[in-house]
Amino acid sequence: MSWDEWAGQDAVGLAALVRDGQVTPAELAAQAAAGIARTNPVLSAVVEVFEDVVADPLRDGMNPDGAFAGVPYLMKDLGPTLRGRLQEMGSLFMRGNRAAADSHLTGRIREAGLNILGRSTTPEFGCCSAADNPAVYVTRNPWNADYTTNGSSAGTAAMVAAGVLPISHATDGGGSIRIPAGACGNIGLKVSRGVFSIAPAASDLTGLVSIQGCHSRSVRDTAVFVDACRGGAPGEFMPYWTAAEPYAALIQRDPPRLRIALSHEWGDYRATPHFVAELERVGRFLEGLGHRVDWALPAIDFRAAFAAQTRCYISNFAQTIANLLAPRGLDRPPEGLIEPINIRIWEAGIGMSYTERAQMQAVFNTTSRGFGAFFEDWDIILTPITALPTPLSGTTEYLTTSDNPSVQDWFGTLWRQFAYTPLANLCGIPAISLPLAAQENGLPLGIQAQARQANDGLLLQLAAQIERAIDGRWNAGRRPGVHVAGG
Question: Distance between CA atoms of 167 and 187, rounded to whole angstroms?
Fold first, then answer.
């Protein structure tokens, strides 16, 4: 098919063409690979294409009768593993690392009929705002290659935005699905806890803030992905919940009249005036759809919440790095192979006590309860996806290549930029970035909607209502400058 036809289809649409006999999974794979070749020299968003899977989509066990019927898909080079395939986590230290087995979610993705045909880029261990290290790769934003995609789901964001794939894998420990979706004009849903398994290497108890998911360009693609891939593996530490009805059916109906709060004053953090104006504009649009919209904010201690979130990241990433060092017989991260901030995170977190973690968990509890009380009065809270504009590529203050000597100060820099996403991970609540606004630099600006625990379906219902109201024209119908079908 032509590139315009290709980019005009979502994953559900491509699957329908396969079922109608108009195209085969192998033809889809070949066109996706051609799209990668067409855009990746500029974007540097794909680490590897699995040529054997492009040639034979059934090679690794993809189910052609699944919901997506062989639609091509990239796996972020972090999180779920692929048996026998490289997983290098954006790190020089992990070069040549091969997985011994598939993760549980990998099996669910393949059973859903998604053809995993390559790896997309990520910053080292997923721990910073962009896949931007010249020693590894520099992933660029298709809307303007002078800018980053943000992160950590960098390559996925660029490939979906550039029309190469309709859907691709992403992960989110503090906004890594939503933030790059917001900067690249994609739909990015962070689900509630208890939806996507991170078995067998970890669980919702050990991962605590880490969530799996995808980027897409249509609400129905995300809905079908959640329907098809959700569910726990044997031995989960908590029950995995199921929605009352499939989201693919739910989104066909508008939500009831919603109570929608707007906020950009997130503790010490404030959005730029332009971002606030865009948020207000979207709020007026939602009023026009019949919803009640006003300014409101959860009554929580934001400083304590961000301090606890920082402690969580430092201790979690320190253990992640320690677990990678141990098989190699190393007792500390090697200089030059692991990026400077990640070494400092290891130094700060490796000796963290149970008492410190318990104090962190106490703040997680009070913060979650505060959001819970807020959602007794409000259905949704709306914020910009970030407080400040997307950085130019090479802005090192947000990167783990930074020479900042203070880990605490480095995280504080992140929070000033990415204020609005991390607390959803802390609370385990759902949040979605929708491409409804624009930055002054011309890049997209995602608008984030958050809801109470397990109200993922309500977010998708609202997103689908918006999608119908704008006739599917996310990003006001604009295309990025780097695109398979031309800008």
Answer: 10
* Single-letter code of the amino acid located at 224: V
Helix, strand or coil for residue 150?
A: coil
- Helices (H), ranges, 289-353: 302-325, 340-349
Scan for tokens 């400083």, then name that residue. 303
- Residues paired with 188 in a beta bridge: 215, 433
Distance CA 285, CA 459 (A): 16
350 in Cβ contact with 343 (< 8 Å) = no
The angle formed by the CA atoms of residues 340, 409 and 190, to the nearest 5 degrees, is 85
Tally of CB atoms within 10 A around 329: 6
Query: 146 falls in which pLDDT band (50, 70, 90)?
Result: very high
Is 306 in a helix, a strand, or coil? helix
Report the pLDDT averaged over residues 146-174. Answer: 98
pTM of structure:
0.98
Burial of 273 (0-12, 13-18, 19+ CB in 10 A): exposed
Q: What is the pLDDT of residue 419?
A: 97
Structure tokens at 60: 């690794």
Nearest to 67 by CA among 122, 19, 26: 19
Query: How distant, in Å, are the alpha carbons of 17, 56, 318 from that of 39?
Result: 24, 23, 35
Phi, psi dihedrals of residue 316, rounded to the nearest 5°? -65, -50
Which SS3 state, helix, strand or coil, does residue 214 take? strand
Residue 360 is encoded by which pair of tokens?
């962190």
Q: How many CB atoms lie within 10 A of CB 205?
A: 10
Contacts with 236 (C-beta within 8 Å, 6 or more apart), sequence order: 197, 199, 203, 204
3-state helix, strand, coil in the chain (%, to 5): 40, 15, 45
Tens of pLDDT, residue by residue over 5-26, are 999 999 999 999 999 999 999 9
* pLDDT of residue 487 exceeding 80: no
- DSSP 8-state class, residue 434: E
Measured over the CA atoms of residue 218, residue 222, residue 225 and residue 227, the dihedral's sign is negative
Q: What are phi and psi of 267, to 5 degrees?
A: 65, -125
Region of 168 on the Ramachandran plot (φ > 0 left; ψ -120 to 50 alpha; else beta): beta
Burial of 26 (0-12, 13-18, 19+ CB in 10 A): middle
Distance, CA of 370 to CA of 424 (rounded, Å): 12
State which H helix or E strand residue 170 sits in.
strand 167-172
